[in-house]
Task: inverse folding
């Protein structure tokens, strides 16, 4: 997950307080967002969170009920999709079944009234870039899923859009092909310098592709940040829970210092010491979130007494590269721990063993509701 | 999707209403308004001169009055004269009996086609549809040759020695049933087929797995699931059959007419357009419920395709 | 299991026999020499005399020519109007009066022809009274009536075809810069072309076949073929009608068989290509 550098001064797409209502249903609720030139921005969320509606408003297929959308400084209000400097790659690819690959890719350029020879050259170039030069004369039904995906991409990119919208770009591909295509997509984006806005429900896809992620829930953007930000510093229970898996414990703030806090968690039977300050009123109810891979598990007690509990192993799920343990504390609470399988087999912790769980004071994230 | 887009694309407002307007106005002018005219005429007085009926509302110059003359007698005639009541009942009976036989013959055929191998399925469907593309009139006419006193059926039976006297087959209720079932069978089979073909066969396996014998599985799973197809098929046969005109005129009894024949006779024979109009309106009212049912079915089918 | 298969086969065979025996008997007796039509004249049959007689019958041939013209015009009109109605109903979303339009397009599917016929005739009479058009009835009034009831069938065919493919194809075209009219002519129309062909053929057949509506809205000198046939067969069986029926069945059968074979070959070619794409396609 290399963090790509984003030029924050070059704001390219600006969404200002955009809402979309269908009757009583609010699909998109007062979303404001800036997307910078040359980045891959992922809108991540479950089905029905409004991410696709937002994308369709960028493309011009839906009109915002309120708010403004500016692309490169130009207000998009009243501009129909066929006049927007934006192109879209559809989830279903939407390749025209009665046209060959070449005709599909040329279609957009023909609408601009470009010279025939130019069209030919640009289509050939683009097909070369997506490695489909040999397939130009084929029709969509004569292509495999991966090839169709690349035709859809080529068809949208050949127009040199200011913004490329991708609706679940890898959703229709099988798992193996998806990984391969993810990196191809990133390479292509770097090569052409087009700004991508990707909609996906797949967090792994978002993590690999995105320079920044906007997590959506119930029509609102709940957090925007780099993949690392989102994963390591979720700002709400929803985000912490939605991205990856997490242990969350209810607690109360009992010690609030600028450089550290201490939180009492009845379920954990201990106080949690966190080595960074937070801003919350004293006695405020908070949630402590700890990722399963950040918890250490051992047969012997750790040296430091801080951030340490004991429990009994109740479930083990062997996943190959790692194992997931569910450890029951005496409060009855189950804690999820993941351990990479690096040890020899006979040294592994097994069912019903009593274990010590501990974590570094910088690991917990304190969430304030 | 496209639709909300279309409503937003402002500069397309003009062509959009034009595209809607053309078919709309056509159907309004040539389908909806004619029924209003029929309704109007059914309340008019008959008139010997053209156009055969008096205007409902008339400006009478001499009295300087607007005269509105409604004639409810056209409808009262329908109740008063038993001919009309009997004819209506007979038409509904004929249509119902024919629909029943159509279903009885069509269901097993549709079922057999839906469960046959995909390669033979298309061939069988083609065989079902093919007669539909050939002239309806000629296919009904073919039965005259078969059912006549010296027709093919009687001649065959006589030659085989199964009967001594030719049977009276033509110009009977039986002949009308045959004619309707024969002509409308594809309309029963096709909706049934398209319903049965969509059934998930694992449902039957699940039923068998849960202990249902084949007959029971059919009654409890296949039959209830095929209800939409049954309803559509029956309506497609029943509604036009009630107003059928060609079949009873070629094959039917002469002592008991169907409503279509009476309607035509009132129109061309007696030239009593107001009464004919009233008959048409009543027939329409009789069929209104089935027609509305059919439209609901049609809407659902389209929605199912679109999901 | 075996037994039920046998039962199904038998039902199917009986049903198909029911559908085809009358047609076959017409074909057979069209070659019968006897005037008695249904009594086979063993000595002088088969014969082509009824076919010869048919070709000499100017009245029937004239009616057939009128029918062809009316059917062709009706089919074209019905396809144009039916396509518009189908596109409007599936792609235009909500507009005022949509439900009414939808009702008007499905009602003619089941409306007894005799009611449609009467309503049409009364409309034409009223129109003539009011604005002097159409002056008298003839081919044009038959064509208008046939367009109206055939367009309902075209609308349904177009609607189900449009509902079958998703509107993201049209959206993609808009997104690539095509204006709505271009989208219609370059994307929508080619995609529904098969539906338009079958809609045209169906509309042609409906018009070619109609006797009830035509009887009401035709005028002197504009008898269509079915009207001629109807008035003849009402007077009894006549052998040259058998010959005519045979010719019509022949034309239709050849057409249907050829189109089925063609569609089947296309389908096989397509599925073969899809298989190949799947095998060699993955990078």
Result:
């Amino acid at each position: 997950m290399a963090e790509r550098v984003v030029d924050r001064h070059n704001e390219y797409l600006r969404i200002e307080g955009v809402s979309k209502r269908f009757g009583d249903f609010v699909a998109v609720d007062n979303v404001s967002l800036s997307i910078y030139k040359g980045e891959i921005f992922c809108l991540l969320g479950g089905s029905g969170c409004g991410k696709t509606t937002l994308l369709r408003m960028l493309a011009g297929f839906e009109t915002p009920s309120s708010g403004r959308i500016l692309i490169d400084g130009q207000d998009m209000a009243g501009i129909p999709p066929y006049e927007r400097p934006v192109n879209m790659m559809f989830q279903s690819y939407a390749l025209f079944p009665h046209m060959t690959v070449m005709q599909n890719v040329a279609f957009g350029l023909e609408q601009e009234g470009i010279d025939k020879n130019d069209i030919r050259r640009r289509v050939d170039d683009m097909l070369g870039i997506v490695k489909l030069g040999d397939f130009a004369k084929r029709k969509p039904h004569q292509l495999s899923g991966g090839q169709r995906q690349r035709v859809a991409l080529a068809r949208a990119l050949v127009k040199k859009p200011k913004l490329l919208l991708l609706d679940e770009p890898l959703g229709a591909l099988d798992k193996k092909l998806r990984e391969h295509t993810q990196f191809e997509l990133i390479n292509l984006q770097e090569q052409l310098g087009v700004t991508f806005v990707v909609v996906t429900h797949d967090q792994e896809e978002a993590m690999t592709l995105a320079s920044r992620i906007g997590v959506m829930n119930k029509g609102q953007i709940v957090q925007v940040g780099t993949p690392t930000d989102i994963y390591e510093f979720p700002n709400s229970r929803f985000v912490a829970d939605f991205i990856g898996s997490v242990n969350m414990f209810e607690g109360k703030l009992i010690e609030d210092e600028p450089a550290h806090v201490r939180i009492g968690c009845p379920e954990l039977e201990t106080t949690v010491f966190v080595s960074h300050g937070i801003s919350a009123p004293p006695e405020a109810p908070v949630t402590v979130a700890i990722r399963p891979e950040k918890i250490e598990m051992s047969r012997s007690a750790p040296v430091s007494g801080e951030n340490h509990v004991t429990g009994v192993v109740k479930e083990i799920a062997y996943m190959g590269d790692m194992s997931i343990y569910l450890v029951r504390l005496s409060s009855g609470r189950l804690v999820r721990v993941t351990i990479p399988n690096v040890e020899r087999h006979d040294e592994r912790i097994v069912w019903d063993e009593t274990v010590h769980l501990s974590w570094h004071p910088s690991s917990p994230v304190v969430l304030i509701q | 999707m496209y639709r909300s887009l279309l409503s937003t694309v402002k500069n397309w407002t003009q062509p959009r209403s034009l595209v809607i307007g053309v078919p709309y106005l056509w159907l309004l002018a040539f389908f909806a308004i004619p029924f209003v005219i029929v309704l109007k005429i059914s309340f008019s007085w008959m008139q010997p001169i053209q156009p055969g009926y008096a205007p409902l509302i008339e400006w009478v110059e001499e009295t300087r009055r607007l005269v509105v003359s409604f004639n409810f007698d056209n409808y009262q005639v329908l109740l008063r004269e038993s001919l009309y009541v009997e004819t209506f009942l007979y038409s509904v009976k004929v249509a119902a009996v024919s629909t029943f036989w159509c279903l009885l013959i069509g269901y097993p055929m549709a079922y057999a086609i839906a469960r046959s191998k995909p390669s033979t399925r298309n061939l069988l469907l083609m065989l079902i549809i093919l007669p539909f593309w050939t002239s309806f009139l000629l296919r009904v006419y073919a039965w005259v040759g078969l059912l006549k006193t010296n027709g093919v059926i009687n001649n065959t039976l006589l030659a085989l020695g199964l009967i001594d006297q030719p049977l009276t087959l033509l110009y009977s209720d039986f002949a009308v049933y045959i004619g309707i079932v024969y002509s409308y069978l594809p309309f029963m089979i096709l909706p049934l087929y398209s319903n049965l073909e969509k059934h998930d066969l694992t449902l039957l396996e699940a039923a068998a797995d849960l202990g249902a014998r084949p007959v029971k599985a059919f009654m409890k799973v296949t039959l209830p699931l095929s209800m939409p197809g049954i309803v559509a098929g029956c309506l497609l046969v029943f509604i036009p059959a009630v107003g059928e005109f060609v079949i009873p005129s070629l094959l039917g009894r002469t002592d008991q007419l169907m409503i279509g024949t009476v309607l035509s006779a009132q129109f061309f024979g007696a030239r009593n357009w107001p009464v004919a109009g009233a008959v048409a309106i009543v027939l329409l009212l009789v069929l209104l419920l089935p027609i509305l049912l059919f439209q609901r079915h049609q809407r659902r089918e389209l929605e199912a395709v679109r999901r | 299991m075996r037994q039920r298969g046998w039962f199904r086969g038998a039902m199917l065979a009986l049903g198909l026999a029911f559908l085809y025996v009358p047609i076959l008997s017409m074909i057979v007796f069209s070659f019968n020499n006897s005037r008695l039509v249904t009594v086979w004249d063993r000595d002088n049959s088969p014969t082509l005399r009824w076919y010869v007689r048919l070709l000499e019958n100017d009245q029937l041939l004239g009616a057939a020519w009128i029918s062809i013209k009316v059917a062709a015009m009706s089919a074209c009109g019905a396809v144009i109007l039916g396509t518009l109605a189908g596109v409007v109903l599936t792609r235009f979303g909500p507009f005022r009066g949509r439900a009414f339009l939808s009702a008007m397009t499905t009602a003619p599917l089941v409306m007894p022809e005799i009611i449609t016929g009467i309503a049409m005739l009364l409309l034409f009479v009223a129109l003539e009274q009011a604005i002097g058009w159409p002056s008298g009835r003839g081919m044009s009034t038959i064509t208008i009536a046939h367009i109206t009831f055939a367009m309902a069938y075209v609308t349904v065919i177009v609607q189900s075809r449009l509902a079958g493919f998703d509107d993201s194809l049209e959206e993609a075209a808009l997104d690539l810069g095509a204006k709505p009219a271009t989208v219609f002519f370059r994307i929508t129309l080619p995609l529904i072309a098969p539906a338009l062909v079958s809609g045209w053929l169906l509309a042609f057949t409906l018009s070619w076949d109609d006797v009830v509506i035509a009887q009401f809205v035709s005028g002197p000198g504009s008898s269509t073929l079915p009207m001629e046939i109807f008035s003849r067969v009402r007077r009894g069986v006549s052998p040259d009608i058998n010959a005519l029926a045979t010719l019509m069945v022949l034309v239709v059968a050849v057409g249907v068989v050829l189109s089925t074979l063609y569609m089947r070959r296309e389908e096989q070619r397509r599925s073969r290509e899809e298989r190949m794409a799947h095998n060699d396609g993955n990078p």
